[in-house]
Design goal:
By secondary structure, the protein is mainly beta. It has one domain: Trypsin Inhibitor V, subunit A (Trypsin Inhibitor V, Chain A, 2-Layer Sandwich). It is 10% helix and 26% strand. The strands form two sheets. Strands 3-4-5 form a three-stranded mixed β-sheet, covered by helices on one side. A two-stranded parallel sheet has the order 1-2. It is globular and about 35 Å long. It has one helix and five strands. InterPro entries: Prot_inh_I78 (IPR021719).
Length: 80
């Protein structure tokens, strides 16, 4: 049986469901409305990843990774 370390080899992390609910399908901007989430309200440890953007492979369990599509809409949210 393989060893699974939560947050390293598995998706999610504590609070990921809350962030997924808040962000999925929205765009990031300066203020909140029906289709936008304010960047200032993201955790201090976060990064926004666009398609084909380069990123480091270091693992930070408390860093929120927000993956956006070409149009800037949030498509995936995870910690790491």
């Amino acid at each position: 049986m393989p060893l699974v370390v939560p947050g390293i080899q598995s998706e999610g992390g504590k609070g990921i469901d809350e962030w997924t609910t808040k962000l999925m399908g929205k765009k990031l901007g300066d203020s909140h409305d029906e289709v936008t989430f304010a960047k200032k309200d993201l955790p201090s440890e976060h990064r926004v990843l666009k398609p084909d953007s380069m990123s480091t492979m270091d693992h930070k369990p408390d860093r929120l990774n927000v993956h956006v599509g070409e149009d800037g809409t949030v498509q995936k949210v995870r910690y790491g």
